Amino acid sequence: MAISRELILEPADIRRISIQCACGAEAVFTLKKHAEIPSECPSCHKRWNEAFSALVSLCDIMDELEKHGLRFRVPDPESKLNPNKPAAKGE
Ligand SMILES: [Zn+2]
Question: Is 62 exposed, middle or buried (0-12, 13-18, 19+ CB in 10 A)?
Answer without folding.
Answer: middle
